[in-house]
Amino acid sequence: MAQVTTRKRGKTWEYRFETASIDGKRKQTSKGGFRTKKEAQKAGAKALIEYDTSGKKFTPSSMSYADLLHEWFEKRCPLIYEQTTIDNYEKVIRIHLEPALGKYRISALDTVDFQNVINDKFKAGYALNRLSTFKNVMSLTMKYAKEMGYIKHNPMYEVKLPSKKVAKSNSNTRKKDRLPIPRDALARIFERFPEGNPSHVPMMISYKTGMRLGEVFALTWDDIDLENSTIDVNKQIQSKRGQGQNSIYYFKSCKYDSERTLPIDTELVHLLRRERLRQKENRLYYGEFYQRYYVGKDNIINQISGQEIWFVTVRESGQYHQPRAMQHTSKIIQGKALTKGDEKPIWEDFDFHSLRHTHGTELAAAGVPAKEIQIRMGHKNIETTLNVYVHDTPDMQNHTRETLEKIYQKAQ
């Protein structure tokens, strides 16, 4: 690395430093005429910096971190990552990083600011793998900022994640205890959202099959075989941010590649028959105004072109009943969005996933082997089935007690 030297020539001072060789010959640059040695050293140091940066003068960017996030996401992500990763990063940006740091200039952000994000999310109970994703996005965006010349130094180099040991002790703080829905609450839920309400069919499907939210709302009528009483679970639906606040929906493979065919009970078959007939009648009634949907490029759902599909979860006019609509349904059940005629909460612990948990627990209580429940629920391993989804209930205890009586009565 070149160093600035000074020497006195006559009554003035001169600085000198070595530059790149040309044709194998060493070259130097120098300038004299300075009154003091200190002036020569200062001017030489400035000249060396300008030489090392090709004469460019660095000016810190006034860009906000929110604008940096959007620029990186739109210009860099599509060139590198698969859609699943892009969707994950979009949610991290929208839900976590933009609210935390988006309003600040990137030139003002330092290591402490980014470390505080990690610390705050850790205190909120996020697992280590999620914290790692937050850190990764922040690192990538600031690395991009440095590459683009927006900043001179990347402050993310010194940001640390908690150790695995510390993170493990903190990993359960955000986990919600999953409970099966009590029978009386279940009856009131379907009384509040009866057949004909857009939320009735998706909730009933999940309750009677254990299907996940994205799997239920991805169902099309060609997935359902009413003659053989089965549902083919072969995809899920996901969303990503589109223009403005609109969401773009698209199909993707099931979680853990858990495609499966599920037998269903007669009551659910009859409900689906009635629902299919109702939709056919509405299609005739609305005619050209009935809303239609297609699967286009990259499995994206649209209303213009592609392969036509017929969703199971639709409103009277054919409008797709989106998964996010269940958030409002859940709030009504929880008592957080009571409407006229709702006197009190139905069940404060409800969310859509509760229906899935209830199904798994009822299967276990009925004596269905855990391996069969695992396959039906689409779990990656049987430990999930046993430890998370199957709960000890009074019915299960009574079943065990009755079984014990039968075993030991025979033995006497």
Strand portion, in percent? Answer: 5-15%
How can the largest sheet be summarized?
Answer: 3 strands, antiparallel
Number of helices: 16
What's the count of strands?
A: 11
What is the straight-line distance between the termini? 94 Å
Q: Order of strands across the widest beta sheet?
A: 1-2-3
- Order of SSEs: EEEHHHHHHHHHHEEEEEHEEEHHHHH
**Average pLDDT for all residues:** 87
* Overall shape: elongated
- Please give the radius of gyration in angstroms: 32 Å
Describe this entry's structure for a reader.
- With about 400 residues, the protein is α+β, with helices and mostly antiparallel strands.
- The protein is built from 16 helices and 11 strands.
- The chain has 3 domains: about 50 residues, no CATH class; about 110 residues, Tyrosine recombinase, N-terminal domain (DNA polymerase, domain 1); about 160 residues, no CATH class.
- The strands form 4 sheets. Strands 1-2-3 form a 3-stranded antiparallel β-sheet, covered by helices on one side. A 3-stranded antiparallel β-sheet has the order 4-5-8, with no helix packed on it.
- About 20% of the residues are buried.
- The model has no long low-confidence stretch (mean pLDDT about 85).
Summarize the structure.
47% of the residues lie in helices and 14% in strands. The chain is built from 16 helices and eleven strands. The longest helix has 21 residues.
